[in-house]
Amino acid sequence: MSTYDISAAVPVTSTYRLQLRPGFTLVDAVGTVDRLARTGVGALYLSPILQAAPGSDHGYDVVDPTRISAELGGEEAFAALAAKAHEAGMAVVVDIVPNHMSVARPDANPWWWDVLERGRASAYARCFDIDFDTGPIPIPVLGDDGDGGRAALADLRIVDGSIAYHDKHYPIAPGTHTPGEDVATVHERQHYRLVSWRRGDSELTYRRFFDVSELAAVRVEDPGVFEAVHAEILRQADLGRVDGLRIDHVDGLTDPGGYLRTLAARFPGWIVVEKILAPGEEIPRSWPVAGTTGYDALRVTGGVFTSPSGEADLTTLAADQGVEVDVVTVDAHARHAAATDLLAAEVRRICALVPPRPPRDGRTLDAVAWERRRDAVVELLCAFDVYRSYLPEGEAAWTRAVETATHRRPDLETHLEVIDDRVRAHPRGELARRLQQTSGMVVAMGTENTAFYRATRFVALNEVGGDPADFAVAPEEFHTDAALREAHTPHTMTALSTHDTKRSEDVRARLAALSEVAEGFTEAVRRWTDRCALPEPSLNLLGWQTLVGAWPIDADRLTDHLLKAAREARLGTSWIAPEPDFEDRVRAWPGRVLGDRALLGEVLSVVGSIREAGWSNALGQKAAQLLGPGVPDVYQGTELWDLSLVDPDNRRPVDHALREEILERLESGWRPPIDDTGAAKLHLVRTCLRARRDLDPRGYLPLEASGPAARHALAFARTSRGAAHPDLAVVATRLPLTLDDAGGWAGTVLPLPSGPGTWTDLLTDREIAPTSVDGLTAPPLADLLDHYPVAVLRRR
Q: Strand, coil or helix: what is 177?
C-alpha cells in the first residue's frame, strides 16, 4: 500500500488534461473553466507551464525552471487561471519535468550556456550529469555528408561575441578570443566541441533523455539542484495556486524514491508519477505518492472489451504476411538494438565503472575483455521484466534480470557476476545507479518505440504499459485489478487517452470491435494487400488497421503517422538513416488507397460494419474508467469522439466552442442518440463525472449478470460517502457484435445490491421497475440497455 496520505491533500476526484502551447495559452484555458466545472471535472490538469524552448508546442523542453512561460502568459495568467478554477470548485494539477532540460538552443538556456562557457568551473556544472574528465563536451549538431562533420566546421562564424552555426549560438569562454582570430582556433579553446550529429549516440559525455541529445539530464538528487529546479513551482504551491503535481519520467532520476520523499516533504498535495508498470507490477510502497498516471489501468480497461476469439485469425494473418508474431523475440531484438546503437554512449559510461577498469593502451586482449564487458552490460540492460529496479528496495527485480541475462548468455556469466557483486555491495553506488537509469531507457526505446511498431498483428494492444502478447482481458481480471487498485492506490490516476498514447481510446475501441470479426477482416486485408501494399509487412498491417480504426482520416494525417511508425520501427527506414525510395512509397500509399474507389469502398464497408460496436466499446470503457477506482483523467477533447493517433496528431486544436454548444443542450434535458456527433459520449462523461464527485474512494463491488449472455455484461457497484449500502451501479456491454449474433440479451438480468430505495438510470432518467430475483432488484438487460449500451444507476 502506498504511503500517500489523502488528508494532506486537496481532494482530486477527476482531472481534465489541457495541452498548453502558444496557440492555446493559460489565458485561453480560463475560457474552458466554466464548461469543465459544469461537466463535473474535479481538477484542471495542465501540461508543463515553466519556460520552454522557443517555439515549443508541448512544454517538456524546459529551458528555465525559475519562471512561468512568457509564451503561455506568464505568472499573471497562471494566477488568474488558478483563481478561476478554485472559484469554480476545481483543483489545479501541474505537470513538471525534473529529469531533463532542453539544450537545443544554448542561448535560450542560461544554465547550459554558463556550463558551455565556463566548463567545470560553472556554478551550474553540478546541475547536469557531465563526465568532465573525458575532455570538452561534444555537442552533436554539425551536418555530416560522410566526412564526420569536418566540412561543416567551415560554416562556423563569430557573431556578437559567440560562435554561430547557422541559427544556433554557443558561448566563447573569457580570454579565449582575440578579434580577427580564426574561428576554428577559437572553437578549439572552448569547453565544448561542435561535432557531427551522428556522433551523439556513441560519444556523448552528458546523460540525456533517452537518445535525445537536445535534452540534457538534470541532477535533482543534488539538494541545491533540487531547490533550483523546483523553487518556482513550489512557490506557486505556497501561494495556493497548485494542488497537485504530475511527475514526468520518474524512472529517469537517480533515486526516484529519495526524490519523491524530498518533494512530498515540501509539497503536501496530490502527487502522481509517470511510471510505466509491467502487468502485475506495483509502485514501490515506500513512495509517498497517490499512484501513477494510469497506463496500467488503460491496459485492463481497454482489454476487457477485446474478444479473445480474434487472436488466432490475426496471428495467422501476421505470420502469413511475414510479420513476426513472437513478441518476446521482437522485443529482445529491439532492446538489443537500442542498447548497442542508440545508447552506446550510456553503455560505454557504465562499462567504465565495472571493475577492473580497462587499460588505455589498446592491447588486443584488453580490447576483447572490454567487448565482453560491454556485451554483459547490454545483456543485463535488456533482461529486465520491468522498467527498472529500485535498489536496495525491490531487489527481486534486479535478481530476475541477472538470472535472465545469465540464462541467455551463459558465456558472460563471469562478467555478469562481477557486475552483480559490485551492485549488491554498493546498491546506491554509481554503477548501480546508471544501470537502473539506463534499463528504463532500453525498455522505452526498445519495447515501446520500436517493438510496438514491429509486432503489429493487433495494434490496439501496443500501448505504453501494455503487453501485445496478452490479447484480451477477462472480466475477472478486470475486477481483480480494480479491487487491487482500490486497496493499494485508491487515489491513483487512471487514463484511456494521454499525450503519449499511440492511438486514442476511441480508435482502440473500434479496433476492439475488429477482434470480434477477425476472420472477415483478415480476409479483406489479404485482398487489399494484394492490390495496394505498403513496402514492409509490419507497416502494412499497421496501415490497414490505422485506416479502419481512425477513419475518417485524410491523406496528410495518415502519411505522417505511417512515416513516424516506419522510422520508429527501423524496418526499411529510420530517423537516423532515412531511405528516400522507401519513404516515397509510404507517402504514395494513402493517395493510392483513397483514390481507388473500389478499394476504398471495401474499407468503408468494414468501417461501417463495426462503427456502432466501436461506439459501444468506447462508451463502455469510458464508464468503467470514470466510475471505477482511482482518479480518472479525461484527455482534452475526448469527451466527444476522438480518433487521434500518436503525437503530434493528438495535440491538434480542440473545438471547445462545439463542446460548449453540446453541453448546453444536455443541460436543457436533451438525451442524444448515439451518432457521429459524439454527443452521447459527452452525455456519459458529464453524467459519470458529476456522479463520482460524491463517491467514497473505497467500496468497489463487482456485479455479476445472470442468464445466457451474462459474459457480455461488465458491471460493478460503488458507494457514496456516508452511504450505508452501495448506491451507484454501472453496467457496460462487452463484445456487442458477438452478442447480436447470439440473439441479444435473451432474458439476462443484472441483480443489483440490496438496500432501501429505488434505482434510476441517470443517462435516461428512467426509474428501474422493482423486479425481484431472490429478494434483489434484477432488471432485464434488454430493457436496461435498450437506449444506450451502458447504464449508470443511482439509488434514491
A: coil
> For the chain, what is the mean pLDDT?
94
- Residues whose CB falls within 8 Å of the CB of residue 590, separated by 6 or more in sequence, listed in order: 555, 558, 559, 562
CB 209 within 8 A of CB 252: yes
Distance CA 27, CA 64 (A): 21
Tens-digit pLDDT profile for residues 290-334: 999 999 999 999 999 999 999 999 999 999 999 999 999 999 999
Question: Look-up: residue for cell 451501479?
Answer: 729
Q: Closest Cα to residue 279, out of 382, 388, 385? A: 385
Per-residue confidence band for 775, with pLDDT thresholds at 50, 70 and 90:
low
Residue 619: per-residue pLDDT: 98
For 560-604, the pLDDT digits (tens) are 999 999 999 999 999 988 999 999 999 999 999 999 999 999 999
Do the beta carbons of residue 262 and residue 130 sit within 8 Å?
no
Cα 165 from chain centroid (whole Å): 34
pLDDT tens digit string along 653-677? 999 999 999 999 999 999 999 999 9
- Which residues on neighbouring strands pair with residue 140, listed in sequence order? 195
By CB atoms closer than 10 A (0-12, 13-18, 19+), residue 429 is middle
pLDDT digits (tens, 9 = 90+) for 19-58: 999 999 999 999 999 999 999 999 999 999 999 999 999 9
Measured between alpha carbons, how far is 778 from 766 in angstroms, rounded to an integer? 15
Residues 6+ apart with CB under 8 A from 741: none
Separation of alpha carbons 356 and 423, rounded Å: 14
What is the full DSSP assignment across 410-440?
Answer: GGGHHHHHHHHHHHHH-TTSHHHHHHHHHHH
Which run of H or E residues covers position 792?
Answer: strand 790-795
pLDDT tens track for 756-771:
889 999 999 999 987 6
Give residue for cell 540525456. 208
Q: Cell triple for residue 674?
A: 448515439
C-alpha cell at 110: 542560461
Element (H, E) at 309: none
Start-end of H helices in 551-596 = 555-569, 580-595
The verdict on whether omega for the bond into residue 552 sits within 30 degrees of 0, i.e. cis, is yes
Sheet containing strand 43-46, strands side by side: 291-292, 270-273, 244-247, 91-96, 43-46, 15-18, 631-635, 493-494
Report yes or no: 731 and 790 within 8 Å, Cβ to Cβ.
Answer: yes
- Amino acid found at 89: G
Say how many C-beta atoms besides its own lie within 10 A of residue 71's C-beta: 18
Dihedral (Cα; 455, 461, 462, 467), 10-degree rounding: -80
Identify whether the C-beta of residue 459 lies closer than 8 Å to the C-beta of residue 503.
Answer: yes
Give the Cα separation of 50 and 259 in Å (integer): 20
Say if residues 257 and 286 touch (Cβ distance below 8 Å).
yes
Nearest-5° angle of CA 550, CA 23, CA 273? 70
Q: Would you say 289 and 283 are in contact if contact means Cβ atoms under 8 Å apart?
A: yes
Let me know: does 436 contact 380? Beta carbons within 8 Å.
Answer: no
The SS3 of residue 465 is coil
Distance, first Cα to last Cα, the chain: 34
Q: What's the rounded Cα separation, in Å, for the pair 758 and 661?
A: 33
Residues in a beta bridge with 125: none
- Rounded-to-integer distance, Cα 609 and Cα 455, Å: 26
Contact status, residue 567 vs residue 573, Cβ threshold 8 Å: yes
- CB-based contact 679:619 (threshold 8 Å): no
What's the rounded Cα separation, in Å, for the pair 229 and 270?
19
pLDDT of residue 1: 46
The owner of cell 544554448 is: 106
Using alpha carbons only, what angle is made at residue 318 by residues 316 and 319, rounded to the nearest 5 degrees?
A: 65
Question: Strand 43-46 vs strand 50-52: parallel, antiparallel, or unpaired?
Answer: unpaired
- Using a pLDDT cut of 90, give the percent of the chain over it: 89
